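Amino acids appear as letters; backbone shape is given numerically. Here is one record.
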Amino acid sequence: MIRNWLRKLLAKYTGVYASRYLVLFIDTLMLTIAYYFAWILRFNFQFIVFENYPIFAEYFYVLAIYLICFQVFQTYVGVIRFVGYIDIIKIFQACIAAGATVFVGVYAYKEILNEPNYILPIGIIIIHGLFTLASLTFARILFKIVYVSIAGNSLKSKKNILIYGAGQSGVLTMTTLQNDPNAGVNVVGFIDDNQGKTGKSLFGVKIYLPAQAFDDLIEQKGVEEVIVAIHNISPKKKSELVNKCLERNLMVKNVPPIERWINGELSIKQIKSVRIEDLLNREPIKLDADNIFQKISNKTILITGAAGSIGSEIARQVVGYRPKLIIFVDQAESPMYELELTLRRKIERQNVSVKFIIADVSNKCAMDRIFNEYKIDKIFHAAAYKHVPLMEANPFEAIRVNALGTKTIADLAIQYGVGKFVMISTDKAVNPTNIMGASKRIAEMYIQSLSNLKNHQTAFITTRFGNVLGSNGSVIPLFTKQIEKGGPVTVTHPEITRYFMTIPEACQLVLEAGCMGAGGEIFIFDMGESVKIIDVARKMIKLSGLELGKDIQIEISGLRPGEKLYEELLSDAENTLPTYHPKIKIAKIEAQDHVHIQSEYEKLLAAFNQPDHLVLVAQIKALVKEYVSNNSVYEALD
């Protein structure tokens, strides 16, 4: 009855926190009790000590020193119910500092008065310090235990969870969950691969091997959720773990790396559901940071398409290498403004000069003004239209930006003596089946043809990779929105597959390739294994805690105009050569004659100025021989 009454009382006042001055008052009371207890203990419980020693006068000296140290170390400002090891360390530091100060003061007083004995015995100082430390620590831990055990159960029904990882991160995760009664969880076990830990306990919770946990414990304990609190796990193993959990309809959450914890402490709000990006089965990319720094530091860098998904991530990474000046160019005003706001603090921290310019890469006059005003050392050309169905319906815009815009920037790079030009291409340029891919292949061909000229100093480099997770218009954000709305999740074809890479990964490899390239290369990135889009959709639905067929549906919408079932990184006529980076290879390609390509570009420009889009697409097909339309009105031209 009393327990239930306490639960209701604590639940009612769970949002009310004790005043720091009340905590300080209680600490002072315990300090006083510890002081007098130290005298009694020191003299074997002979209370006559109170008549023979001036302990009351000395008490105020000790009290003043301890209160000053409590103030310095802020031992009384924490929320007692959420006390952690940092609060205990503060109490320890304050007691050590106070005890040492009391001793120094007493010793100095003895020397000044030339007293043969200490006025305050050293034994009293030590005993008092230890009792004060023990009592303050014990009181806080006791209150926390009582609060969590009584209030925690009353706030919400708890769900049983497992923590994967019985190391430091797992221990701190457990502490964080215990500290927050609103967490509403009950940790029933730890999972760890270390057999030496099997059968042992943390916080009274047993440690199991993965096989034990998944075969027996989940069903026995009614486990609903697994929190992954281990950071040295390989991507492949993590993906297998998540798949096991999803097969058993368990929610899976992730503890962020320790470096992302706020002030070294984990917040329960940072423990979030595992994202599809975490399950790519890819090892972290290792970069030659020194080489990249050397090639970018103190240089003037131009980034076109800077407000796009790839361009903005390149911008974020380039800022960290401290160039002299970064020129951001994009024709999209609002995204450019967002980029400026996002990068402002990092730019100030790195002390980098920047220019944000609204302009279209196909506008030669606008681009010429930029090249004329700034001495550019390196260009990352990410400006492009990339949405396949939209470009299929708007071939003039695809050619204007992707082909003619690239030619404009490349020609100006030669004219103004730019050192390196790095173009961001796509796997859709390989054996293209749509306007977008063909327009990017035309840009590749022009860049390659310039590399064969000997009358300039610009090194032209092309980087080619597949879909990037989370980029504007990619399938992952689309699925996320559809799931949030309750579905249906639309997949164009049950057999459609794609290569995937995260935006940071892709941009890291772009920087590495841009630095290693000597000119004329098309760099191919290791995209891992191709995955079925429908499998991605199913996994995202499960990660959201929904059941396919019951809570949400998948609909097959049919291939879009120009869309491929399978993406390719190399054409039939291309092979690869290795580089020093295991995830970057060089495509062996047929050389492009600049005179021929220039002539074809003139025909393309003439067709571009015609009103009939079929004339334009016919010229595209004449230039890109391997371009064969798929599921498109332009199939009639093949």
